[in-house]
TrEMBL record:
Family label: Belongs to the bacterial solute-binding protein 7 family.
UniProt-listed InterPro entries: DctP_fam, TRAP_DctP, TRAP_DctP_sf
Signal peptide positions (record): 1-34
Native source organism of the sequence: Shewanella oncorhynchi
Designated name of the protein: TRAP transporter substrate-binding protein
NCBIfam families: dctP, TRAP_S1
Highest taxon in the source lineage: Bacteria
Keywords: Signal, Transport
Length: 339
């Protein structure tokens, strides 16, 4: 054995060290032994919801198409971040994808408040036409100066009121306390009927209802079912008075930091997941309503056309209060989507 004077290594050992060095450069360059990069997706709903299923599909597609390079960790039910901190966490890159409801971006843009205006959209087809049209697509960029990138809309559905007393007329809601998402438009909507709006995170709603700290809330059939609100609310008024949809967002820093080819693959995976989520949203809207009614825990309040018209008349003046903040052009485009 020949000992090298400088390194103190034998020749076979030197060869092995060299081979290991080359292998390590190769492994790093081609990400062979490196851990996949983790992408975190946090949301506040259960897994058996349109958003929950969409996030899981996104994980499946990304990991299938970028094996060993990226992994997606999905955190449902406010496990990682909740309503109060998910967007701040996104901007700190503590999470890379979130999909808050369109009512929860108020601190970052006022223009998305259009989606909260009561009795604006006739149905989900109109919502979809507006989102996919020019005005809706422009709104995806409404937070770009804040570092938030809108990647697409995801449906949940139209909202219904739930309560412990039947709400046929707006006067029936007078003096009652309703939980709302953090949106001034939603608060104004309840002010208009003489009720009290309490802004609270989604994760607290069940307990607030159960303990009777509040009297009611507004939500989709899917959320009312998956959160078991119907077990602690005896009445659901089928009002379809507003929409609860989402924007899937990431941060500018994360998005631009991705290599262009990976970004393209991830965006395609997201678009496909959103398409699946939208299909599930349409199905769940009917299925979850049926499950709630079949449970007999909650009774359905169906509004006559004349009763519904009273809600429209008392709530619609809210639009004018927010027209300057939202932009008349945006509201007009939303109204036009009804045709
Ligand atoms: C709510 O807070 O009621 C909803 O935004 C929850 C959700 O994400 O669907």
């Amino acid at each position: 054995m020949i000992l090298n004077q400088q390194t103190g290594l034998t020749r076979p050992l030197k060869t092995l060290v060299k081979m290991l060095a080359v292998a390590s450069v190769f492994a790093t360059s081609f990400n062979v032994f490196a851990e996949p990069i983790e992408i975190k997706f946090s949301h506040v709903v259960a897994e058996n919801t349109p958003k929950g299923q969409m996030a899981l599909k996104f994980k499946e597609l990304v990991e299938q198409r970028l094996p060993g390079e990226y992994k997606v960790s999905v955190f449902p039910s406010s496990q990682l971040f909740g309503d109060n901190n998910e967007l701040a966490a996104l901007l700190l890159n503590d999470v890379q994808f979130v999909a808050p409801s369109l009512s929860k971006f108020e601190r970052y843009t006022k223009r998305l408040q259009v989606f909260d205006l009561p009795f604006l959209f006739n149905d989900m087809d109109a919502v979809n036409r507006f989102q996919q049209g020019e005005a809706g697509q422009t709104l995806l960029n409404s937070m770009s100066r804040k570092g938030i990138v809108g990647l697409g809309y995801l449906h949940n559905g139209m909202k219904q009121f739930s309560s412990n007393t039947p709400l046929n007329n707006p006067a029936d809601a007078k003096g009652l306390k309703f939980r709302v998402m953090a949106s001034d438009v939603l608060a104004a909507q309840f002010d208009a009927i003489g009720a009290m709006a309490i802004k609270k995170p989604f994760s607290e709603v069940f307990t607030l209802l159960q303990t009777r700290a509040i009297d009611g809330q507004e939500n989709t059939w899917s959320n009312t079912y998956s959160q078991k609100f119907y077990e602690v609310q005896s009445q659901i008024t089928e009002s379809n008075h507003g929409v609860l949809d989402y924007m899937v967002v990431t941060s500018d820093t994360f998005w631009k930091g991705l290599p262009a080819d990976k970004r393209k693959i991830i965006k395609e995976a997201l678009d496909e997941s959103i398409a699946l989520g939208n299909k599930i949203a349409a199905e769940k809207d009917n299925e979850d309503k049926k499950l709630i009614l079949d449970s007999k825990r909650s009774q359905l309040v169906t509004l006559s056309p004349a009763e519904r018209q009273k809600w429209v008349e008392v709530m619609k003046p809210v639009w004018a209060k927010f027209e300057d903040q939202i932009g008349k052009d945006v509201i007009d485009a939303a109204v036009a989507a009804n045709k």
